[in-house]
Sequence to fold (173 residues):
Amino acid sequence: MITTRQCIAVTALLLSLPWMSARAASPLDTVPEKMPFDIPYGAPISLELARQAINAAAAEARSHHWKLNIAVVDSGGNLVAFERMDGAQLASIAISEHKARAAATFRRETKIFENAIQVGGNTYVTTLDGIIASRGGIPLLQEGKLIGAIGCSGGTGSQDEVACAAGATSLNH
Fold:
């Protein structure tokens, strides 16, 4: 039987060991000087520009024979336009909109969340409301301001991302 005195002695010894008292520094404890992803909001995307982004993304997908769902939301994450290419996976309808909404409301590509979990091991990201940790959601900017986002789903994450990038790039010309 272990006495109270022995328990206290063992506890004191364990607490005095360097490996018990020293905490490993976490990269999450770093305090950035500037606010990350601090993109100012612009006027919400127009239907005309949303269709332009969808058309460019769909053209990119067709050039590779990919069947995608493509959603464009405004800066508040509200659906503005959507296209389901013939034969596109039905489950990806909601996923494309979710990717676009997450990219708009968090003002960053959804690939950031994917990398945070897959590469960085930052599983806390899964606790954030509204995220989707899958590439294929890209903010849409006009004159450096967030006007909306595009989300693609139905292919692999990298295929979705390529199509979205084509849609986003189409607005910068």
